[in-house]
Amino acid sequence: MAPDEDRKLVYQRCKEAILAELRAVGATPEIPIDLYRVGPSLIAAGFTQDEIVTCLDSLVSQKRIEYAGGNRVRLLA
Length: 77
Description:
This protein has helices at residues 3-24, 39-44, 49-61; strands at residues 33-34, 65-69, 72-75. The chain contains 3 helices and 3 strands, in the order H-E-H-H-E-E. It is globular and about 40 Å long. It starts with a helix and ends with a strand. The chain has 77 residues and is an alpha+beta fold. The mean pLDDT is 94. Helix 1 packs across helix 3.
């Protein structure tokens, strides 16, 4: 697999993991979740902080989550 394909796969897996973790801790449009509740498990799964931040920004641009202030995110879809 080419390096770009590897990177795309990592980012896709990271985005899926973020959404799964947010759902697991009860995130909804009405209930924003502090990123400190999901960050450690994402790091433990092998994702870097840079990958996580890039994927969070991507999910915001895709309107799947939104930043809610105070290091929290709200699950939209």
